[in-house]
Design goal:
With 415 residues, the protein is an all-alpha fold. Strands 1-2 form a two-stranded antiparallel sheet. It starts with a helix and ends with a helix. The relative contact order is 0.11.
Length: 415
Amino acid sequence: AIFLYESSNDADKIIFWARFPLILLTILLGFIIFSWTKKRFGENTALLALILYAFSPTVLAHGRYVTTDLGAAFGFFIGLLAFLKFLEKPVWKNVLLLGVALGTTMLLKFSLVLLLPVFLIVILARAKEFFKLIGKLFIAGLLGIIIIWGVYYFFNYNYPQTKQLADAESTLASYPNKALAGLDLWLIKNSATRHLGQYFLGFLMVSQRAGGGNTGYFLGEVSASGWWYYFPILYLFKETLVLHILTLLALILGFGKILKSKNSGAVVRVRSWIHGHLPEFCSLVFIVVYWASSLASPLNIGIRHVLPTFPFINILVSKQITEWLKSKNLKVKSPAVAILVALMVAGTLKSFPNFLSYYNKLAGGTNNGYKIAVDSNYDWGQDLKRLKDWMDKNLPAGRQVAVDYFGGGNLKYYL
């Protein structure tokens, strides 16, 4: 704050250029979603998936802020794509690609560790391949660890080992799992592994932070222990109604296909579906694992925390809808879907520039969103500059106002 607002700097210019790489990353993720989906499922599916991504109020809100949420979404997506490429063709080139993807994504956000249980579940579901692939997976994981070690070596280079150990001991003094804390201190004590120890320290700090919760407001209650239904309700209220309609239709169509399968027995039908639909299965496993982790966490401060699942939801929904459109009654179905998508686009554009504060009609609209949840769901202090512009246009010179502000901006700088 001192650097931005109290050092004779142009704060707006610094903030703009800090945000610019995240904006580019948001665009790049949209491009990858379209390109990969087009290659897998066709141009129509890719276009619909891109529209659902590009006109999500949550994506538009957090794709322009200096936070890790969009970076995490990018990391999970490229990590799963590399894993799929490896499963379908486990040649050494793809082993190396998976290792690089693992190392890179793990550096984007500590929550990317959730890729590991997703990989394990998918591999176990294809039990016949487990022992064939375990060696190559180990090598990919080792390469990922080397990449993490290399990056942290660079940042740790001038960090005296004794000081690093003392800082870690102080930080982990209250960590509840003494075994994990001990493992991290052991890594730091060893000169060869102390850089990995610094990464692991960050992971432990984040896990402790998430496990400790955060005092928040939700549906008239204030609590630090969280609500298990927090994310489902916010997802229902903060994404567009059109997406929910299309998702419901896609679920009905998807389950209908499985039930109509010619294979006898539910287990056989599911196995048959997994074998023929590996990308969809990986996406579903990731969504389930990530949402399960989020529901279990008491850290309830924003729908942005489940943002990494959005690209996969968009692709799965788009695939079912475009396949449905290929069947009969095309003259009725296509205009209906086109109207729904147009309504979604228009509704999102209408909410500009208040994407962060967006709530759909089920919640009573954006103006009533504060009754449901605040913090990064509604007011993150993002409108301080806009408040100044409004005051300049609407208030007489010298008029004093009282401001109750929640955010990282500086009242004196702008007002």
